[in-house]
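Worked example 2:
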Amino acid sequence: MTGPLTIDGRPIGADHPPYVIAELSGNHNGDLRRALALVDAAKAAGADAVKLQTYTADTITIDHHGPGFDIEGGLWHGRTLYELYQEASTPWEWHQALFERAGQQGITVFSSPFDPTAVALLRSLGAPAYKIASFELVDLPLIDVCAKSGKPLIMSTGMASEGEIAEALAAARQAGNDELVLLHCVSGYPTPISDSNIRRIPRLAERFGVPVGLSDHSPGITVPIAAVALGAAVIEKHFTLSRADGGPDAAFSLEPDELKALVQGVRAAWESLGDAEEKIKPSEAASLSYRRSLYAVADIAAGDPFTPANVRSIRPGFGLPPKEINHVLGHRAARAISRGSPLEWSMVGKASDE
């Protein structure tokens, strides 16, 4: 790959503003009109992309009761996987309308496919990227199919060991695809802030040499903003029109005004990083004159010695640097100096004992 990785022409990487993905997931609540309104809301909030999930209950699991199929604990306790995915899935017949609405709004749309038939649908719609969900990171055949599309792959790492992450990246590269992004993720729904472990972001970037971001399920926007300070190049967050409307992901989703605050917050955090160079910034240039320096604080006649009573380090900063005080005290004034004059070396004569 030459040059920065891009999605729809937007460069992705730590040297560029964070790429914000608004995850629609199941927050359409079974209503296409609501799904379309979510696309509109993501654009209005300033997100870079809307992400869908492309599966059916039958392509992701089977209709069955038993250990592992019956959910125990958490937001979805008592339901089967099949029931949950029936509710949360985005119907395939909606995809074209959602892609068209995104095109009209000027916002990128792509999806997480969960089997090869989903990849085929997304390819037919011209998806500009693919997302590999955390639970699918170990599905190397699925990664192979997505990678062969030639489009960027964004892969979440929730629950994955570094060995499993390395295998996923290797599978994509073996399929001829090196346009890869990792998202640090904790697959808790919701994720307590104390579990977020965002210090892993720079570790992943160093270990694997690809752009790294955050797929976040914690409450609020604090964790994503903090993640940008650690180098997160992509931020993914679930969003909804209103948590009060319910839905499978509502509890850990942002509302539109919160998504807007997230977009503004992560971009401001990125701007604050700067370039680490040691240089005076335009906003502080005028303040240079208010640093401390050596001044005559009393009238000094020619030939009088400099003493702590007539020379001090004060503001403003037009005199000699304060560190020179010991090279001034004990010397005599080379000429008369009036109170309030900044000291300069031409005013400093011989030592008083010479």
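The radius of gyration is 30 Å. The first strand starts at residue 5 and ends at 7.
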